[in-house]
Amino acid sequence: MKTIKHITLLLFILATSVVSAQVKFEAKVSKQKLGINERLRVDFEMNQDGDNFNPPSFSGFTVVGGPNQSVSNSWINGVRTYKKTYSYFLAPKQRGNFIISQATITIDGESFKTTPVKIQVTGAVDIPKDPNDPTYLASENIHLVAEVSKTNPYLNEAITVVYKLYVSPKIAVDNWNEIDSPRYNDFWSQAINTQGQKVQNGTYNGQDYRYLVLRKAVLYPQKIGKLNIEPLSLNIALRVPTKRRDIFGSLLMTRVNKTVSAGNKTIQVKPLPEVGKPVDFTGAVGSFSFDVTASKTELDASESLQLKVSATGNGNLKLFKLPKISLPSSLEVYEPEHKESVKTNLTGMKGRISDSYTIVPQYKGKYPIPSISFSYFDLKTESYKRLSSDEIVINVLNGPSNSTNTSEVSAVSNNNKQPVVLNNDQFAFIKTKTDFQTIKPSHFFKTSLFWNLLLLPFLAIPLAIVIRRKKASRDADVYGNRIRKADKLARKYLSSAKKSLGKKEVFYVALEKALHNYLKAKLHIETNELSKDKINSLLKEKQVNNEVIKSFGSILQNCELARYTPIDIVTMQEDYKKAAKTIALIDKQAR
Fold it and tell me: I need a surface site. Which of 305, 324, 384, 462 has the fewest CB within 10 A?
C-alpha cells in the first residue's frame, strides 16, 4: 500500500512537470477587422520567460505605442502560473488586407515563433460618441482642413489649396507626422514654402481655435471635367483632459494618438470657350503683355543681332509656347534660347518668358521682320485677346549684294517681283592681281651655321670626358658625399624655420616640427607616440654619438622652453645653426 502511494505521488510530479514544460508563445490582437481611423492592439504572450524577443516588422502599420512589457506571476493551489506580455499599438497606413508576421523568442535555448495573424483594414468608421472617451474628445477638438480657392476654374487657370490644422485650446499637440501626402494628378503643381509659419488664432464652426498652415500649393488643371485633389493625412500625438484631477485640483491629461485627414476635394474644370478662339492660340491663360525687340537694326553682313520674343504677366507662363518668327532665308537664324524668370506665389505664376534668336545676315540690304501676333485667354473678361508687335526693319549696310536676296526681300515686303539692276562694280570686291615677290635661292651648305653645327659634337667630346672624371671622383668621396647629403637634408627640413627667424613662437614651432619630421623620415617612426628616452635609445641603436644625441635633446628642450621664456633673435640663430649641425651629424653617423 505504501509503495502504491509513492508511485502515485511520482506520477503526479511527472505529470505536473510535463504540463509546466509546455511552452506557449502566441500573438493576440484586439480585433481582426478595423477602420483606417481606429487603433489595433497586438499582444505577444508567453508562459515562460525568454530572451532575444524579436517583434515582426508590422508592414502596413505605424507603431504609435509600445512595446509595453508586463509580467504576471502567481501560485494557485501550489501551481505556478507565469505570463509575460509585449504589447504594441498600431495605426493602419492604408486600406487593405495585411498580415502580422511571426515574432520570435528564445526560451531555454530553443527558438519559438508565433502564428501569423490576418488583419483587414476598411474605410473610416464612426467612432462612438462617448464624451468621456479620449479618442472621441480628440476627434471633436482637432481638424485638418483643405481650403481650395476656386472649385470651378477654367482649364489652365491657377487655383490654390491651403492645408490648415485647427486645434482647440482644450487640448495640446505634442507632435505629428505625415502618413499620406497628396498627389496632384492631372494638375501642374508648385508647392509654396511654409517654413517659419506661426500659430494663429481663428474660428472653426463658430468656435475659437488655434490653427497652423501646414502646406500651400498652386495648381493648374490640365484636364477638363471632375478632378480629384487627394487628401493629406496626419498621425498626431496629443493630450486631452480627463475627468480626474490632481491634488491641486487641475485636470489630468491623457495622451492620445489620432489620425486626421483633410478629405478629398473635387473641382469641376471648365473648358476654354470655342467661340472667338484664335487659330494661333497656344494655351496662354491669364493677363500678359507681348513684345518683340532687336538688339540692333543696323549692322554689317556676317555680324549678328539678337531678336527677343517675350511675354510678361501673370498666368500659366511655363505651360505655353511663344509664337515663332518668320524671316527671309537670306538671314541665317539659329535655334532660340529659351529663358524663364518666373516666381510662383498664391496668385499663381508671375514673371517673364522669352525666346532669344541669333540672326546673322549674309548680304547687304534691308530685311523687314513682319509683325508677330500673340493671343491669350483673359480671365478677367473671359474672352480671347490678341497682341501684335511692330514691324522691324534690319538694315545691313556693308556686305556682298545678292540678286536672289533682293528679289526675296522685295517678295517678303511687297509680294511683287522687282527688276535687278546690275553695274560694272558688282565684282569689285574680288582681287584680280597678286602681291607675290620673287625670292632668291639660297643654300644652307657651306654657311657658317652649317660648319658650327658640324664641329659641335667633336668639341663636346672632351668636355664630356672632363665632366665624367669629376663625377667619378666625387662619387668615390664617400665621406664628402655624406656631408653634402646631410647639409642638403638640414636645409630641406629647416627651410620653414629659417623663414620664421625673429618670430619666437612661429620659429620654435617650425623648428620642433622640422626635427620631428626628420626623425620620422630617418627612423621610420611616429614621434608623437614616443618619449624622449625612446628616441634616445633608437638613435643609440643607429650608432649615433652620445654628444650628438644630447645636442638633439637639448634643441627639443629649447623648443619647449621658448614658449614660456623671452628669447632674442641671436639665440634663435644659434639654435637654428645647432639644429642644422645636429641633423647633419646624425645623418652621417646613423647606420
Answer: 462
Strand pairing report for 251-261 and 233-245: antiparallel
Domain boundaries, the chain: 20-122, 134-269, 291-370+390-414, 478-589
How far is the C-alpha of 166 from the C-alpha of 181, rounded, in Å?
18
pLDDT band with cut points at 50, 70 and 90 for residue 474: low
Beta strands in 168-274, from DSSP E residues, in sequence order: 172-180, 187-192, 200-204, 207-221, 225-229, 233-245, 251-261, 265-269
Helix residue ranges, H only, 391-477: 403-414, 448-476
Coil, helix or strand for 577?
Answer: helix
Using DSSP's 3-state secondary structure scheme, residue 565 falls into: coil
- The pLDDT assigned to 462 comes to 81
What per-residue confidence (pLDDT) applies to 218? 94
CATH dotted code for 20-122:
2.60.40.10
Which of 3-7, 192-196, 231-235, 491-495 is the least confident region?
Answer: 3-7
Mean pLDDT of 352-362: 93
Nearest-angstrom CA–CA distance, 153 and 224: 9
CATH 1.20.120 corresponds to the domain 478-589 = yes
The pLDDT tens digits for 151-166 are: 999 999 999 999 999 9
502: left (phi over 0), alpha (psi -120 to 50) or beta: left
- Residue bearing the bigger pLDDT, 388 or 487: 388
Alpha carbons 340 and 353: distance in angstroms, whole number: 4
CA dihedral over 510, 516, 519, 521, signed as positive or negative: negative
Query: Measured between alpha carbons, how far is 446 from 288 in angstroms, rounded to an integer?
Result: 84
Residues 98-151 pLDDT 10s: 999 989 988 888 889 898 999 998 887 766 666 667 777 888 889 999 999 999
Measured CA to CA in angstroms, residue 504 lies from 50, 494, 566, 573 at distances of: 69, 15, 9, 11
> What distance in Å separates the CA atoms of residue 232 and residue 260, rounded to the nearest whole number?
8
- Cα(351)–Cα(344) distance, integer angstroms: 9
The Cα 429–Cα 399 span in angstroms is 10
pLDDT at position 321 over 50? yes
Residues 6 or more apart whose CB falls under 8 angstroms from that of 50 comprise: 25, 84, 105, 106, 107, 108, 112
The pLDDT tens digits for 170-208 are: 888 888 888 888 888 899 999 988 888 888 999 988 888
Nearest alpha carbon to residue 187 among 155, 150, 147:
155
Q: In the structure grid, which three cell numbers stand for residue 470, read together? A: 669629376
Give the pLDDT confidence of 527-570 residue by residue, as tens digits: 555 567 777 788 888 788 888 888 888 888 777 777 666 677 77
Residue 400 CA, chain-centre distance (Å), reads 55
* CA-based max dimension of the chain: 152
Letter for the amino acid at 279? V
Buried b (16+ CB within 10 A) or exposed e, 283-297: ebbbbbebbbebeee
Percentage of the residues of the chain whose pLDDT score is greater than 90: 26
Grid-cell match 618619449, residue found: 531
End-to-end CA distance of the chain: 99
Fill in the DSSP letter of residue 70.
E
